[in-house]
Recover the amino acids of this structure.
């Protein structure tokens, strides 16, 4: 609030208020901010106390006139919330009305943090803000907040995310952040399990419930706090809970297990991931020898594995994971998992991986020998079930399905029939690819008919395209059909060109394709196909045209353009067409390519066909670099006059003064050559004021420069540099004293 407003509203004269402010400022309580236009009480923690005593003390003073004048209503209402928390006699309804006016979600969270009554009020007024006020709501009214957060997770497009700002993330953080030495550790987990059971009985979502149930058996704590007086220094403390708490969570586990056995939850992946934390407790402990807590955690993990044994019969993917955990814990178990599933998805054995891999490969080949005599439709269905179970369990390696299909394709009598059976079951593309390649080897006449159908299916499109493009005898109508979708597979085009897998006519078609993405991909692939980057003569003209239109952000440009003066010049000219180069951001890899040119090559570009409408300042700076010779060439080019002083705008110690003298000798004034940006102060070692001090030291040396014109430029910029240094120094001092304001 301004001094004039304070004087008017308080009934004192401006002079009297000025004296009061001066006295308070001397004590460090009041500061003049925003160039003298506002007064602020410091530290911020003092504001609510003053507001409570002045406006809600023995002689109350209406806050309405003051709220009408404050420049920032949000900050004022935040102070009122603090005063309310300290006992100010302001009605909750009135305070809620003020918060509503600000339309600030953070203030609702602060208000909900005051207690159970306030938290319930916020949930009632704005139930849609449950994710934003989830933390205080869970702290004060968990039985109200948990069902609302679970419902919010159902509607969240990132529904499975445990990011702290997401509904499920709020619940997880609430569990993890329970202080390890308090009863909250167990109470929160028990409450969560109970509320999930009630929520499921009210037709809650099974997948969401599974994720939240896993939080109820987390064996560790993970607390976050900020350093004293600083919102920048974050302290993270993470570790395994103590043995007694782990034993109590084992009791909560029985509640969780009862929910799982009830059939209300069928996604076991989050639960098994949580059991994995119990089976590997050392990840939460920094100790050389095994601790008692680790031993207890492993014992509880064994109990959990035994409890989950019932899922193995129908869910082999999860059963495999339980077997792996049992093996790790050396825990005898009666869990039985489908043999075929274990052949294709065995668990990892790291003791002797080479021998294990050989055994697994042999088992997959034996399975192929057994399956190849069965009907293709039967095998496709069987394999689709196994793949789906593995996907739901999150299993991706070791995976022997590809080898199995490769063996089946070799052994079967009709690979096309098998490919169609697998496609009907929407099997992964790598499984069908084996049969298609085998059909190609056998020159099966039905191959192109199948490819014609598969190319319409996005799952198999890439596999079909690869064969169609490589085969020189692909039907013309089929080749014509795939042209519109080639732009979606630019990486495939590049790979095929790089591997020299295409016929000359196909390569020519890519380089002249109607889609610019395809032309660019082919140009890069063809360049990569030769270690020297040389282009076959038959493609040179089409390749050059295609390359010159490659998008600016393509990372291969640096490698292709580097050291090639003619090509770089042509590329820059082409980019400038229709103002593609002027006033747009030029990627670093292009600037780097320009800087690799020698002085003669850069001079050629400046003196050649590059004209004013085809440049931007960043390209000019890259062309000049640190070279006095190139800069002199630039100054002699009158057509590029608007860019003459561009390389001087950014101060570079040891370079700027040399180039500045050349510009001054060319007739430019001290005002023209004065730098306006100082990159050395943007980042680096030390504080901001340290970096400005280093710059001041460098600039000070130039105050004794032998050329009076350089000294004149320094006199122009020095006051601004000193002001910046002093401002940063004062700002750092204020933050150390008062914290972040």
């Amino acid at each position: 609030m301004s001094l004039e407003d304070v004087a008017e509203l308080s009934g004192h004269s401006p002079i009297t208020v000025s004296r009061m402010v001066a006295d308070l400022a001397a004590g460090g309580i009041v500061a003049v901010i925003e160039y003298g236009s506002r007064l602020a009480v410091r530290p911020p923690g003092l504001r609510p106390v003053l507001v409570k005593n002045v406006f809600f003390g023995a002689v109350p003073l209406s806050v309405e006139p003051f709220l009408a004048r404050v420049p920032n209503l949000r900050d004022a209402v935040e102070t009122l919330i603090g005063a309310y928390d300290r006992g100010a006699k302001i009605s909750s309804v009135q305070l809620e009305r003020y918060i509503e006016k600000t339309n600030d979600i953070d203030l609702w969270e602060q208000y909900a943090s005051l207690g159970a009554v306030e938290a319930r009020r916020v949930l009632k007024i704005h139930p849609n803000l449950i994710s934003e006020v989830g933390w205080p709501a869970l702290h004060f009214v968990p039985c109200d907040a948990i069902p609302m957060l679970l419902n919010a997770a159902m509607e969240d497009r990132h529904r499975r995310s445990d990011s702290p700002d997401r509904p499920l993330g709020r619940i997880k953080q609430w569990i993890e952040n329970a202080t390890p030495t308090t009863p909250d550790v167990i109470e929160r987990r028990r409450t969560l399990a109970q509320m999930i059971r009630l929520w499921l009985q009210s037709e809650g979502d099974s997948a969401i419930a599974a994720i939240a149930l896993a939080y109820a058996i987390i064996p560790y704590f993970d607390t976050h706090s900020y350093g004293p007086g600083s919102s920048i220094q974050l302290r993270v403390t993470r570790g395994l809970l103590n043995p007694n708490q782990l034993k109590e969570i084992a009791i909560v586990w029985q509640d969780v297990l009862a929910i799982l056995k009830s059939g209300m939850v069928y996604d076991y992946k989050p639960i098994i991931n949580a059991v994995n934390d119990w089976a590997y407790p050392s990840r939460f402990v920094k100790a050389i020898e095994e601790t008692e807590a680790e031993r207890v955690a492993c014992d509880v993990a064994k109990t959990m594995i035994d409890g989950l044994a019932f899922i193995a019969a129908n869910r082999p993917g999860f059963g495999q994971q339980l077997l792996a955990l049992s093996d790790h814990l050396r825990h005898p178990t009666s869990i039985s998992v489908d043999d075929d599933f274990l052949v294709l998805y065995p668990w990892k054995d790291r003791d002797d991986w080479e021998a294990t891999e050989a055994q697994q490969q042999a088992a997959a080949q034996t399975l192929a020998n057994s399956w190849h005599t069965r009907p293709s439709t039967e095998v496709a269905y069987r394999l689709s079930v196994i793949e789906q179970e593995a996907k739901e369990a999150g299993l991706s390696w070791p995976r022997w399905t590809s080898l199995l299909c490769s063996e089946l394709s070799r052994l079967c009598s009709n690979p096309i029939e098998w490919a169609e059976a697998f496609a009907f079951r929407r099997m992964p593309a790598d499984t069908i690819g084996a049969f298609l390649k085998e059909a190609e080897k056998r020159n099966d006449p039905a191959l192109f008919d199948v490819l014609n159908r598969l190319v319409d299916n996005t799952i198999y499109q890439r596999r079909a395209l690869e064969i169609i493009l490589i085969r020189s005898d692909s039907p013309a109508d089929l080749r014509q059909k795939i042209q519109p979708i080639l732009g979606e597979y630019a990486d495939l085009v590049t790979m095929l060109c790089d591997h020299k897998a295409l016929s000359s006519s196909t390569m020519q078609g890519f380089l002249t394709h109607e889609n610019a993405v395809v032309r660019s991909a082919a140009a890069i692939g063809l360049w990569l196909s030769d270690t020297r980057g040389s282009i076959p003569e038959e493609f040179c003209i089409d390749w050059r045209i295609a390359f010159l239109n490659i998008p600016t952000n393509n990372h291969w440009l640096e490698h292709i353009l580097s050291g090639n003066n003619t090509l770089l010049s042509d590329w820059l000219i082409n980019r400038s067409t229709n103002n593609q180069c002027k006033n747009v951001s030029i990627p670093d890899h292009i600037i780097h390519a320009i800087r690799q040119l020698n002085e003669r090559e850069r001079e050629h570009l400046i003196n050649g066909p590059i004209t004013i409408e085809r440049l931007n300042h960043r390209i000019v700076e890259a062309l000049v670099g640190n070279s006095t010779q190139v800069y002199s060439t630039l100054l002699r080019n009158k057509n590029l006059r608007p860019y003459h002083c561009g390389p001087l705008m950014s101060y570079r110690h040891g370079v700027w003064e040399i180039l500045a003298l050349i510009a001054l000798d060319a007739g430019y004034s001290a005002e023209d050559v004065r730098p306006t940006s100082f990159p050395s102060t943007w980042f680096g070692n030390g504080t901001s004021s340290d970096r400005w001090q280093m710059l001041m030291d460098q600039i000070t040396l130039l105050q004794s420069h032998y050329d009076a014109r350089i000294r004149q430029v320094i006199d122009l910029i020095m006051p601004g540099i000193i002001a910046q240094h002093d401002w940063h120094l004062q700002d750092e001092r204020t933050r150390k004293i008062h914290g972040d304001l």
The first helix runs from residue 3 to 10. The chain is about 60% helix and 5% strand.
